Amino acid sequence: MTSLPEPQPGAKKLGLVIDLDTCVGCHACATNCKEWNTSGHMAPLPDHNPYSAGAEGVWFNRVHSYEAGEGEAGRTVHFPRSCLHCEQPACVTVCPTGASYKRAEDGIVLVNTDICIGCQLCAWACPYGAREFDEDAGVMKKCTLCIDRIYNETIPEAQRVPACVATCPAQARHFGDLGDPDSAVSKLVAERGGIALMPELGYAPVNRYLPPRRRAPAPDPGPPRDPGPLPSQIKNPLLRWVDKVLSR
Amino acid sequence: MKPALSIVFFTVASGAGYGLLFWLGLLLPAGLLPMAGWFGVAGVAVALGLISAGLLSSLAHLGRPERAWRALSQWRSSWLSREGVAALATFAPAGVFFLALLAGREGVAAPAGLLAAVGAAATVYCTGMIYASLKPIRQWHHPLVVPGYLLFGAFTGAVLLALLAAAFGLGAGPALLAALLGAAGLALKRAYWASVDAGPPIATVESATGLGFIGRVRPLDPPHTETNYLLREMAFRIARVHAARLRRIVLSAGFMLPALLLVAAALFGGGGALLLTWAAALLALGGMLVERWLMFAEATHTVTLYYRGGSV
Ligand code: SF4
Ligand code: SF4
Predict the structure, then answer these.
(1) Domain membership flag for residue A219
(2) CATH number of the domain residue B133 falls in
(3) Does the pLDDT value for residue A220 go beyond 80?
């Protein structure tokens, strides 16, 4: 059913919190996402020309890099982009078939690829570019928040987090219930002033991004050091040799 | 947005078909055009042919066309689903209208025609709403988009009605109606372009990334070196000069010339009128194809912010 479930107070809202301060832009999350999901709930994720020019395929997570600000205040920020499991997901309500749906129990937005007709209207309706079309199967695919990991009782409990979260070497990705104000992720968001992307469009994303911390200005290095004479300016060969040894 | 030819053709053909059906369903029962004879039968046949061709073409856009029937299920939330339901439902009174005209049963044809007219208008309204409800695309999420779909359908339908009326020697009324709608279409399209050109952006790369508090944001490295579905589908870009030229073509060839030709046809009448109306119809339909193509080509999607920065 593509009508949205009635919002319940205190309902679970599973989502990700991504720390833009610590993300190093290594693309490990994107790679592990592809690896897990190409054999997971929405498998396979096609690749075309994988080993030659024009390689492309379906990915649920894409890591951009931006420059923000100018001069000393400027920053390079790495920015993973994936489905935000919005609370007002028009990607769901536009779907004519009921293939797209938002789960009442945890807020995860999914596609039932068995009934999707591949009209691609949902991809147009998503402001964040989170949905990618599988041209081989003719159906839409998207991030599942690793529904086949987080509830998977056949894997060790510590691994029951999305693949992107499990693999991030900088621990820049956190997973949890953003509907519970006392959860670790909610506290992190409160503490760091986590933000929602493009709130002006009204999709009310669940995922939050933690902004890069403000850097303290670099310490004043003082006036430049006197570099001393160049070797060619030292006439005495002995002193020139001493200068060379000491300059090593 | 990438102009998918299947959708461009679908909306133009079915728009004109529903427009023609609307006018026939309205004007025949009203007694302004004759129920008897082959005029109505031919008209409804052309309308249903165009509608069916359009709907078939829209199936070509689906990844799994064999599952298309499933699109009828979510009319509670989805305008695409509502369009499908409305399109299918309209076939019933339209079919009865056609058969009743064929059988000369005017008492049945009149209510069926009126119902078909309502269905035609409702279907085109749903088509417009599919686009108008998409918030990430500023040029579509605009109050003049739905009136545009309705008016342009009514205009192209009226042009076809004028062509049929000329062929059957039924006087100049339909030609004048079409000319009037052409003038209205021209005004609406100009107002729409003026408004979208002056409209403020709906989002910026700063709000899309949340990094605006640091300063201006520029894309540095893309996530992938080759293209992908998002870029192909939603980052289609048309050069400003081409857009300006195509806009002029739409206004002149799509609305102005057909309207003038139709007025001339109404004034002159006779065999010349048929020729002029043919020219008007070809120009109007061709212009509408360009209009619909531009509607996609000029539309920008918020996902491009992540790749190109700036604002949309
Ligand atoms: S990010 Fe896009 S695909 Fe994900 S829930 Fe929001 S609108 Fe839907
Ligand atoms: S592509 Fe599939 S999931 Fe998306 S709107 Fe169409 S039917 Fe629904």
Answers:
(1) no
(2) 1.20.1630.10
(3) no
